[in-house]
Amino acid sequence: MLEFIRKMLLRKFHERKEEYAKWDYVIPSRVNAKVLKNSGESRILTIISAWELEYEVFGPCGLYVVKLRQYSYGGGSWQKSSIPCSHAMVTTSLSCGRDLVKDRATDYVHQSLSINTYLQTYKGMIHPIPQQKMWLEIERGELLPPPFQTQPDKPKLQRLKEPDEKAK
Ligand SMILES: [Zn+2]
Q1: Which residues of 62-73 are buried (b: 16+ CB within 10 A; e: fewer)?
Q2: CB atoms within 10 A of CB 37
Q3: What 3-state class would DSSP assign to 57?
Q4: Distance from Cα 66 to the centre of ligand 1, integer Å
Q5: Does some domain include residue 148?
Q6: Is residue 70 part of a domain?
Q7: Residue 110 alpha carbon to ligand 1 centre in Å
Q8: Considering its fold, how many domains does the chain have in total?
């Protein structure tokens, strides 16, 4: 079981590092794909700008308030997933312009989903090890259990006797 987990992690770490080498985005590809999907879905939404990067966004699911500066959105999915939803995307698009939205949208993705965090996760290395029969024999004494220490006794509970109960 342990060997299975070790091999799986060894493979995964390698795959993730190879995957990263092909990226040219500033956020991981899966996150980027979600941002683009939400951006596409935002096209059907209607938006009214209030002031100071606060907006009312209206769509098929109703009306929501988006506060870009606070990274907050009334529907809550932006806060939960850390990726701007379609409502948040339509406001970023309005605040920075349709042409820049692809680059700027990553500013509104939480730090925990950044490339740096991704790299930190897979920074370590799981070193390959030979099969067990190839391991070197080492001199060691007999393996003994730790010395046993008698623990102090648990205090006996004094139960109150019923008035008609006889003493033992
Ligand atoms: Zn939304």
Answers
A1: eebebbbeebeb
A2: 13
A3: strand
A4: 9
A5: no
A6: yes
A7: 16
A8: 1
Cross-strand pairs, 46: 58
The rounded Å distance from CA 88 to ligand 1 centre is 6
CA 145 to chain centre: 40
Q: Output the six-digit token pair for 46.
A: 């209607």
In a domain, 166, yes or no: no
Could you report the per-residue pLDDT of 24-49, keeping only the tens digit for each? 777 888 888 999 899 899 899 999 98
Q: What is the CA(86)–ligand 1 centre distance, in A? A: 5
Query: Phi/psi at 77 (nearest 5 deg)?
Result: -70, -30
SS3 letters for 133-150?
A: HHCCCCCCCCCCCCCCCC
Which tens digits make up the pLDDT trace of 59-96? 998 999 998 888 888 888 888 889 999 999 988 888 88
Contact 78, 85 (CB under 8 A): yes
Tell me which residues have their CB within 5 A of the ion that is ligand 1: 75, 85, 87
Report the separation in Å between the CA atom of 85 and the middle of ligand 1, taken as the mean of its atom positions.
4
Q: How far from the centroid of its chain's Cα atoms is residue 125's Cα?
A: 20
| pTM of the full structure | 0.62
pLDDT at position 16:
87
Look up the domain containing 78 and give its range.
2-121
Q: How far is the CA of 71 from the centre of ligand 1 (A)?
A: 12
Asked whether residue 65 is assigned to any structural domain, the reply reads yes
